[in-house]
Design brief:
The chain has helices at about 30-45, 65-75, 90-95; strands at about 5, 5-10, 10-15, 20-25, 50-55, 80-85, 100, 115-120, 125-130, 135-140, 145, 155-160, 160-170, 170-175, 185-190, 195, 200, 215-220, 225-230. The protein is of the alpha/beta class and about 230 residues long. The strands form four sheets. It has a seven-stranded mixed sheet, with no helix packed on it. Helix 1 runs parallel beside helix 2.
């Protein structure tokens, strides 16, 4: 992830409002744009067809910068849901360009069956008491625990571990973008695609022909993803 003096030029957060793209509002725009292209390339199409929120902070955005960024987003198949901009001139520009704009991201009083907690070690965790249907995506920058099934066509991207108390048939990326220490655990682990940090495994590489279901854990060993029976401890 590109940085400026230890500050991320561009980052993707899984907030309650949805996947949110955060742009550094102090760095030169060409550097920010380069960071966007690099990060979306690393995401490998995960956000394609996803409605995303664009957070520009206090950046004074001009029309040429917006057009250039919009071309990158459209090329990646992203669907801007709305923009957040603190500067009135930036909000006016984006509004005239047809994008809904807000001064800040509203925080709802509650969100049904979706809870953020603190995991062991102080890291953030997202706990979901529901399954994911085809076309649904969850993005979070910490650990994700889901009680339900992740059906084919559904996706999870997490900065930490992913634990599914159910069947995992969709696409998951744990340890995004480069944390190879993350793990994926599921009661029935038959993903279409599984990524941990920079490593990837596809369905045809794994044992999807198993006759019986059993809890399993996926982790990185010797620079490849391996799937093993889960024995109740990491």
């Amino acid at each position: 992830m590109a940085q400026r003096g230890g500050v991320d030029l561009f980052s993707i957060k899984g907030l309650k409002s949805g996947p949110t793209f955060l742009f550094d509002d102090q760095a030169p725009f060409p550097a920010v744009l380069t960071a966007v292209e690099e990060e979306l390339s690393r995401a490998n199409g995960f956000f394609r067809d996803s409605p995303v929120i664009l957070h520009f902070g206090s950046r004074l955005l001009n029309k040429e910068e917006w057009w250039t960024l919009k071309d990158v987003l459209h090329r990646e198949g992203l669907l801007p849901r709305y923009a957040v901009a603190a500067v009135p001139a930036s909000r006016e520009l984006l509004y005239k360009e047809g994008l809904p704009v807000r001064e800040h991201i509203p925080l709802p009083a509650h969100e049904t069956k979706k809870v953020q907690a603190t995991a062991a070690g102080g890291s953030a965790a997202l706990y979901l008491r529901r399954g994911l249907r085809s076309g649904q995506k969850e993005v979070f920058d910490g650990e994700v625990v889901l009680v339900g099934d992740v059906n084919q066509g559904a996706e999870i991207l997490a900065g930490g571990d992913i634990i599914v108390v159910g069947t995992l048939r969709g696409v998951v990326h744990a340890g995004y973008p480069d944390n190879a220490e993350a793990v994926v655990i599921a009661l029935n682990l038959i993903p279409l695609q599984l990524r941990i940090g920079p490593f990837i495994a596809l369905a045809d590489e794994e044992q999807n022909h198993r006759r019986s279901q059993r809890p399993e854990i996926a982790r990185v060993k010797d620079e490849r993803i391996v799937i093993e029976p889960y024995q109740g401890k990491l």
